[in-house]
Amino acid sequence: MVNAACRIEGCELQNNMFKKFLQIWKIKELRNSIIFVFVMLFIFRLITHIPIPGVDAVALNKLFEGNQLLGLINVFSGGGLKTFSVGMLAVAPYITSSIIFQLLTMVVPKLEELSKEGEWGRAKINQWTRWLSVPLAAIQGYGMITILRRASVNILPNFDAWQMVVALISITAGTVFLMWIGELITEKKIGNGISLLIFAGIVAGLPSAMGTTLMTFDQKEIINMVIFGILALITIVAVVFITEGQRNIPVSYARQVRGNKMFGGTNTHLPLRVNQAGVIPIIFAVAIIIFPPTIANFFTHASTVWVAHAAQWVSMMFQNQLVYGVLYFVLVVAFTYFYTAVVFHPDQISENLQKQGGFIPGIRPGRHTAEYLQKITSRIVFTGALFLGIIAVLPLVTAQFTGTQSLVIGGTSLLIVVSVVIETVNQINSQLSMRDYEEI
Fold it and tell me: What's the pTM value of the predicted model, to 2 decimals?
């Protein structure tokens, strides 16, 4: 009886999924948006396979096999760094520029006022963010090439000044083009374009990673594979649970009489998500954590002795797994709080509730409501931040016991993949719901 019931539930689930796909396909606008997104992702993958001439591919692969930090950077570049392509930086400069302007918005009063001026203000800040991404792409490209030139293996033999100029122009152009593609995807409201580009890069690398694992499979590694499978399953369940988790704050609306009609008098709730930041803290943390060693590599051979020693010390510190793991954890937690503070404004919510005649039962409107929402949000964000931090460093801890470096990359990748899938599915469902409402 139990097996029969399970089969019936499984069939119903498959039928519901099939109906959902049919519903999506029947809506022309939504269908065209999804096809457009897939085409843009395909173009993105083509860009990451257009190499810049002058690199020793064999030596480059050897370098990536023994360097976890470069492997993590390669994940966020969509695999473009490992192929030394024109898209080797992907959208990393744009992410860095976004971090800078979000920090400035909290510090510079004029930028804060501009961000509150609605769509026009946000568009202006986004425009400045794009402009700043161009010089950042050139700087980060030069830094990455410098790191590769000073590696222990000879990756860039006979790389002269002219080749450097051509490479920097190509890398900068590739970054601007991918940034444009990401914004086009976001406009289709099928998901965040930047996150989807990173997602596509991770998923595209899965077949080759699985093939390499199968080719080099050893029975002694079966325990590590089992551990990886268990961690992957736990990560997926935990990400779904935390991402979908929310605290519902009850909200009541007072009855208002306007002429002969009565409005309000309803009870609803204000949903506060446990993880309002999504995968953004992970992306921000990686963008920041690669900055110190990148700068340090410029000064390892400086003529001033103390500068060279300081640069070498910074490089060695970031190669230490304990320091790297602790810093990674702290940055993820900090950026979770930071990004939540950027997107969630208790004062504005309290003001809007008061204007609409809404209130939280037992809490006075105005300042008291804002303080209450801030208090609840701080408690919820602590759980979400702690979760993201643990998931981010859990593969690092596991790798110390198993010696399997693929776990380091797999944990962060899995976190991003699951979160992006959930976000994309939610946006598609919201569009379907909106169209159902319009038909009614």
Answer: 0.74
